[in-house]
Amino acid sequence: MSDVREIVKEKYGKAALRVVTGESSGCCGSAPSARDASSDPICSNLYDDSQQGELPETAVKASLGCGNPTALAQLKAGETVLDLGSGGGIDVLLSARRVSPGGKAYGLDMTDEMLALARENQKKSGVENVEFLKGEIENIPLPDNSVDVIISNCVINLSADKDKVLREAYRVLKPGGRFAVSDVVTKGPMPAEIRKNVLLWVGCIAGALEHDEYKGKLAAAGFEAVDVEPTRVYKVEDARTFLEGKGIDVDALGAQVDGKFMSAFIRARKPS
């Protein structure tokens, strides 16, 4: 597990440095040469113009996710929000505005370069009801029953111990608190080689959960009202160039991939 953590930390540290030097990063922190972010089916057009207009350019460029949890979580003024794996801070800063007045947004990240970038983006944005914390999503540095909403954007799939992440999320949520994250999930069986290569295309290190498995893990952690709602379903054509570059006959195996990888909004609630 520590090996996965170090790989993720190095990858996201480099992604933050690329943004500082004026470049963009792809989804899940991939290098810009890996795909054209402006047309990428995973991470393009997640935030509307009004949301992007609220933020520094470096916060937008450092958006490495697969969804927009701030638009789906139905945040309310006065709530406390925690973003797991907050990166350059885009979802934290957007959330902070949604929960103002009276609310607060925490961002948790383990990468020094991302935390530095996020704090600089906070200064540029002028948003004050924000605090960025250094730590791991498997060991959240907040007390029990302390937040109303947990959001995350294509980060939980990077953890090698997803059960611990979900138990920690449950612990820090207040009774009745909401879990509302964007993540990559899979649906149904497929050959291991295909699964591995499509996950590499998506840009995620540890691998996405099958959507029913995700629901089962949330229930095992104690959550109720669990729902997985697809937000973007990836077709085989989206990954054709990448897979052919790996020596895979896309036409022969397309049916085993088509529609089985997706970005999804995962909702759950801690019992009151």
Task: Write a concise synopsis of the structure shown.
The chain is an alpha/beta fold.
Could you explain how this protein is built, in words?
The protein is built from eleven helices and eight strands. It is of the alpha/beta class and 272 residues long. The chain has one domain: Vaccinia Virus protein VP39 (Rossmann fold), CATH 3.40.50. Strands 1, 2, 3, 4, 5, 6, 7 and 8 form an eight-stranded mixed sheet that branches. It is globular and about 55 Å long. It starts with a helix and ends with a strand. Residues 29-39 have low confidence and may be disordered.
List the helices and strands and how they pair.
Blueprint: H1 2-20, H2 49-53, H3 57-61, H4 69-72, E1 80-84, H5 90-98, E2 104-109, H6 112-125, E3 130-134, E4 147-153, H7 162-172, E5 173-186, H8 192-202, E6 209-210, H9 211-221, E7 224-234, H10 240-245, H11 250-253, E8 261-269
Parallel strand pairs: 1-2, 1-4, 2-3, 4-5, 5-6
Antiparallel strand pairs: 5-8, 7-8
Helix pairs in contact: 1-6, 7-9
